[in-house]
Design a protein that fits this description.
The chain has 87 residues and is mostly helical. It starts with a helix and ends in an 11-residue tail after the last helix.
Length: 87
């Protein structure tokens, strides 16, 4: 899972500044996007670890992969630049 997250981060990050230009976002907004990604990792990693002790790790991987797919779709079809914060 860590490898998958690293690949997604590596694939998406180079496109973010250009995508934000297309969505007419202010230049400073890129910092918010990167910060929200890190905040999601800070919150999601311990929460996922705690939940994997309570449930099966296979179930947690399925849920986190599903959330990742929904997030990628939201990034792809974002109607405005603020939607990218939640993708």
């Amino acid at each position: 899972m860590i490898f998958f997250n690293g690949c997604c981060f590596t694939a998406v990050v180079p496109s973010v500044p250009f995508y934000l230009q297309v969505l007419h976002a202010p230049k400073e907004f890129l910092g918010w996007v990167v910060s929200f990604y890190s905040l999601g990792q800070i919150i999601g990693s311990p929460t996922g670890g705690w939940l994997s002790e309570k449930m099966s790790s296979q179930r947690i991987l399925t849920i986190s992969s599903s959330v990742g797919i929904v997030s990628s779709i939201l990034y792809a079809v974002a109607p405005g630049y603020y939607c990218i914060l939640f993708s």
